[in-house]
Amino acid sequence: MAATLTGASSMVLFFLLGLVAATEAFDVPTLTFGEGFSHLFGNDNLIRSADDRSVRLTLNSYSGSGFISSDLYEHGFFSASIKLPKDYTAGVVVAFYTSNGDVFPDTHDELDFEFLGNVRGKDWRIQTNVYGNGSTTRGREERYLVPFDPTEEPHRYSILWTPDYIIFYIDDVPIREVVRSDAMGGDFPSKPMSVYATIWDGSSWATSYGRVKINYKYAPYVSEFSDLVLRGCRVDPIQQVDSADRCAEAVEELMSVDYALLTPRKRAAMRRFRERYMIYSFCYDQHRYGNVTFPDCDYVSSEHSRFGEWGDNKFPPKEVRRSRRRSRKPSAVDDQPSN
Fold first, then answer.
1. CB–CB of 317/193 below 8 Å?
2. Distance (Å, rounded) from C-alpha 211 to C-alpha 28?
3. Fewer beta carbons below 10 Å: N end or C end of the chain?
4. Closest alpha carbon to 64 in 265, 203, 258
5. Over residues 99-104, mean pLDDT
6. Burial zone of 25 (CB within 10 Å; 0-12 exposed, 13-18 middle, 19+ buried)
7. Which N-terminal residues, if any, form the signal peptide (predicted)?
8. Phi and psi torsions of 70, nearest 5°
9. Per-residue three-class SS string for the chain
10. With bands split at pLDDT 50, 70 and 90, how would you rate the model's confidence at 22?
11. Rounded to whole angstroms, how far apart are CA atoms 296 and 136?
12. All residues at 6 or more sequence positions from 264 whose CB lies less than 8 Å from its CB, including other chains
């Protein structure tokens, strides 16, 4: 007799089927840490593997840690396989992102994957964001659950940034597309950016809107990065006069590869992921933005009906780790709400 799938197993199967339907695995060359990155902060909290192809970033009561690409890029494809810390991780933020805030502090651009920790038994939240030209008051956050436990094994997270569109991937499934338009103006990132990976204390906002803080009793918190990919046109942040012309060939090549082309099958996989796992969208956050509409939002009536006035999904998916954990008497902290 065939076995019955549990809720968690069926979600994983759904995601894997979507992954296969979307595309075959990306064929991209990976780098050693030394070929593309340098230590940013955290002293001994950053540990490179013996073969230099993976890095551990640690957060403890003394410091977080991080690394940065050795170059800035005028568009590109940036990717890493990431394994997140286990157990109680409320207040912990792991991030993989592009930014030029150190070069353009008042008009910076940024593309984010942010991983938001949670109390024991509840899932990590994964957040994407887009900033252009210092548009931090118009944050374009989306937040998701995923149908797997990101603390069990590494999963690939990728950002494709071209002059015309941005695509966020989890493994080989596209989860978000941002298309440039005249109406977006400077809100679409356009200046060269570095690539960062960090782990830090985000107690002020990361879990339940800051109501649940980090507890260093569970430290150290360790995240692992591997399969590092930097594919784009390297530029000098100071001498940018001819960067567009010089990078034109590289951008043309970038936009022709498989992960830059959203076929109908990939779009269907993206739609399924968003319908099933997106738990917050800035597009529907009336408390934050009122009746303001964003040109990069695709206001789908069926999608709109799932989100409340705070932008939160009224029918969130079942959490993977909660469905797997053994029955036990909950503690006070486990009963805290999660964002």
1. no
2. 41
3. N
4. 203
5. 93
6. exposed
7. 1-25
8. -75, -15
9. CCCCCCHHHHHHHHHHHHHHHHCCCCCCCCECHHHHEEEEECHHHEEECCCCCEEEEEECCCCCEEEEECCEEEEEEEEEEEECCCCCCCCEEEEEEEECCCCCCCCCCEEEEEEECCCCCCCCEEEEEEECCCCHHHCCCEEECCCCCCCCCCEEEEEEECCCEEEEEECCEEEEEEECCHHHHHHCCCCCEEEEEEEEECCCCCCHHHCCCCCHHHCCEEEEEEEEEEEEEEECCCCCCCHHHHHHHHHHHHCCCHHHCCCHHHHHHHHHHHHHHEEEEEEEEHHHHCCCCCCCCCCCHHHHCCECCEEEECCCCCCHHHHHCCCCCCCCHHHCCCC
10. very low
11. 16
12. none
Choose, from 114, 142, 224, 303, the residue flagged as catalytic: 114
- Give, rounded to a whole angstrom, the gap between the first and last alpha carbons of the chain: 40
Residue 303 has pLDDT above 50, yes or no: yes
For the record, the structure tokens of 25 come out as 């695995």
Catalytic residue among 35, 74, 110, 141: 110
User: At 79, which amino acid appears?
Assistant: S
Q: Which residues, other chains included, contact 20 with Cβ-Cβ below 8 Å and sequence gap of 6+? A: none
**What mean pLDDT comes out for the span 255-284?**
93
The Cα 213–Cα 319 span in angstroms is: 21
Stated pTM of the model: 0.86
Is the pLDDT reported for residue 109 higher than 90? yes
Give the span between the Cα atoms of 308 and 201, in whole angstroms.
29
- Quote the pLDDT of residue 297: 87
pLDDT per residue over 130-188, tens digit each? Answer: 999 988 778 899 999 999 999 999 999 999 999 999 999 999 999 999 999 999 989 99
For the segment 29-46, the average pLDDT, to the nearest whole number, is 97
Cα–Cα distance, 88 to 221 (Å, whole number): 9
- As a whole number, mean pLDDT of residues 322-333 equals 41
- Please say if 114 is a catalytic residue: yes
110 a catalytic residue: yes
The pair of three-digit structure tokens given for residue 277, joined into one six-digit string: 């796992």
